Amino acid sequence: MSLLANFSELDLECGTDEAGRGCLAGPVTASAVILPLDFTNITLNDSKLLSEKKRDHLKPIIEEASISFAISHVFQDEIDSINILNASILAMHKSIEKLNPQPNFIIVDGNRFKPFNSIPHQTIIKGDSKFLSIAAASVLAKTYRDAYMAKIHEEYPMYNWIQNKGYPTKEHRLAIKKYGITKYHRKSFRLLPEQFKLEL
């Protein structure tokens, strides 16, 4: 029998997910969550399918109900150094490492992960819309990252990070073209379309 078939029997199953992987600025943020086996919530789903209002409503519910939860940022300099995939996995590892108690099984949104401390794991495509602990992790990763982007928006309001969260919107790219880049931008990313020249 596969590990995936058995994990519902494990009382310390951890779900983990990240937010901000496709952004041009700011950290990639991950969360890890262990929920009680009897936890239910009819609203909880993949954070990308929820409104900001619903995510903000769910955040304290998840935090209060969870056996353990954690959030970790991996910032732009490290993203540039080790690449976004490795940074995303590192952020998930850092979050799992903070959990107390430690999980005895890890389920991961997506199809890429690296083993963590010999704890069995399973990657699950679209796991954030299939399993509550991954959905909970996606909501926490998204809300904590959004809060961070709102904070640094105050330092550089011309990029409107409070609205675009650092994603490559037309507005964000036009601001990069006009004002250049900041210490929060990921220099290893294509910050502007090729027809624009950017001095790094």
TrEMBL record:
Enzyme class: hydrolase
Keyword Cytoplasm assigned: yes
CDD domains on file: RNase_HII_bacteria_HII_like
A Pfam family of this chain: RNase_HII
GO-annotated molecular function: RNA-DNA hybrid ribonuclease activity
Cofactor annotation remark: Manganese or magnesium. Binds 1 divalent metal ion per monomer in the absence of substrate. May bind a second metal ion after substrate binding.
Cofactor field: Mn(2+); Mg(2+)
Listed InterPro entries: RNase_HII, RNase_HII/HIII, RNase_HII/HIII_dom, RNaseH-like_sf, RNaseH_sf
Record key words, sorted: Cytoplasm, Endonuclease, Hydrolase, Manganese, Metal-binding, Nuclease
Keyword Transmembrane attributed: no
Main location: cytoplasm
EC number: 3.1.26.4
Protein family (similarity comment): Belongs to the RNase HII family.
HAMAP family, alphabetized: RNase_HII_B
Function recorded in the entry: Endonuclease that specifically degrades the RNA of RNA-DNA hybrids.
Protein name: Ribonuclease HII
Natural source organism: Psychroserpens ponticola
Organism lineage: Bacteria, Pseudomonadati, Bacteroidota, Flavobacteriia, Flavobacteriales
